[in-house]
Amino acid sequence: MPSVPSIDQLVNDLARVTGILVRRVRAEHPHEISIPHAQAMSRLAEEGAMTTADLARAESVKPQSMGQTLAALEQEGLVARQRHPTDGRQVLFNLTRKGAELRQANKLAKRQWLSTRIAELSPDERRTLAAAVEIIWRITQ
Question: Which one of 51, 126, 131, 140 is most buried, counting C-beta atoms within 10 A?
Answer without folding.
Answer: 51
